[in-house]
Amino acid sequence: MTALATDVRKAASAARAARSLGSRIAQRLNGGLVRVLLVLVGLFWLVPTIGLLISSLRSPDDMSASGWWTVFTKPSQLTFASYRNLLENGDITHSLLNTVMITVPATVLVVVIGSLAGYAFAWMEFPGRDWWFLGVVGLLVVPVQVALIPIAELFGRIGLFGTILGVVLFHTGFGLPFAVFLLRNFFAEIPRELLEAARLDGAGELRLFARVVMPLGGPAIASLGIFQFLWVWNDMLVALVFTKSGTQPITVALQTQVRQFGNNIDVLAPGAFVSMVIPLAVFFAFQRQFVSGVMAGAVK
Predict the structure, then answer these.
(1) In three state form, how does the secondary structure of 183-245 look?
(2) Which residues of 46-71 are buried (b: 16+ CB within 10 A; e: fewer)?
(3) What pLDDT, on the 0 to 100 scale, is given for residue 13?
(4) What is the distance between the alpha carbons of residues 275 and 272, in angstroms, rounded to a whole number?
(5) Residue 185: band (very low, low, confident or very high) from pLDDT cuts 50, 70, 90
(6) SS3 47
(7) What is the CA radius of gyration of the chain?
(8) Residue 99: pLDDT band by 50, 70, 90 thresholds?
(9) Between these two residues, 116 and 12, which has the higher pLDDT value?
(10) Are 255 and 236 in contact (CB under 8 A)?
(11) CA pair distance 5, 75, nearest whole angstrom
(12) The predicted structure's pLDDT at residue 122
């Protein structure tokens, strides 16, 4: 019996070792295949961006003669002349400044007002709070296209049509419902005991908001700021309606260049790449906060 038991234990140990080795090999193969697949998808996704970058570094003659991929066999085609032409184009550089003047205030106002309103809806008692919040949620379904003409007429009567301030106010108004909805739900997850302890220590509502709620809501606020920045920076519809020649952002300026100068590729390619790189840089700068904000509440 002892010899039989020993043989059984040895066989079981060998089977476990075989299964363990097989499972480890399968896990490594699966992990390797997933990584290879993700790398291939990422490279495929980056092909348009790489093509735009290479096109912005080629002369108009080279771009009209061959595709951008020929630069890998003829690297001498690369030149920064197109970027020099871009810096010398007053319309493009001025529109880039207009884009910054529109995007930054529209983002800051949405984040600040949305944070204050989200805290109020989450933790402050006032008459009709739930009904007001339902009204804010209802504004999420209002499409931008419906409000373009009425607000354009309103801005024309009060002297805001065609100004940067009018575009900022429009983006702020349509960005606030989502901001309030997002931050209210995030702030509502803060433990009540933490807020009560701060109130017992003598903290008022503003101090409680600044010292407790804002630090805890950093990931959600960063995510909101990134969403709003990207949305306003890449907007073209609102800018086409509410801006004039002196207040146009980069998206409208590039579209104007296409309409007036169909072969002005030495300005269009670097302008489009610069317009794309800036929001990408903002996203990667706040990538960690963005991921934390998106995943907030997923794991308790």
Answers:
(1) HHHHHCCCCHHHHHHHHHCCCCHHHHHHHHHHHHCHHHHHHHHHHHHHHHHCCCHHHHHHECC
(2) eeeeeebbbbbbbebebbeeeebeeb
(3) 59
(4) 5
(5) confident
(6) helix
(7) 28
(8) very high
(9) 116
(10) yes
(11) 72
(12) 86
Between 46 and 263, the higher pLDDT residue: 46
φ, ψ of residue 68 to 5 degrees: the values are -65, -25
Q: Any idea which residue has 């800018």 for tokens?
A: 239
Q: Is 39 exposed, middle or buried (0-12, 13-18, 19+ CB in 10 A)?
A: exposed
Mean of the per-residue pLDDT values of the chain? 80
Q: How far apart are CA 207 and CA 240, in angstroms?
A: 42
The alpha helices in the chain, defined as continuous H runs, are 2-56, 60-65, 81-88, 90-123, 129-138, 144-158, 164-187, 192-200, 205-208, 214-216, 218-233, 237-242, 250-260, 265-285, 287-295
Unique residue bearing structure tokens 């038991």: 5
Q: From its phi and psi, is residue 297 left (phi > 0), alpha (psi between -120 and 50) or beta?
A: left
Judge whether 68 and 51 are in contact, CB under 8 Å: yes
| Rounded alpha-carbon distances, angstroms, from residue 174 to 26, 142, 257 | 50, 9, 29
Say how many C-beta atoms besides its own lie within 10 A of residue 241's C-beta: 20
Q: Which tokens is 290 given? A: 């963005």
Distances (CA, A) of 107 to 31, 89, 104: 40, 27, 5
pTM: 0.77
Q: Which pLDDT belongs to residue 143?
A: 86
Q: Which two tokens stand for residue 110?
A: 């949405």
Dist. CA 180–CA 119, nearest whole Å = 9
Query: CA-CA distance, 56 to 276, in Å (whole number)?
Result: 12
Residue 298 has pLDDT above 50, yes or no: no
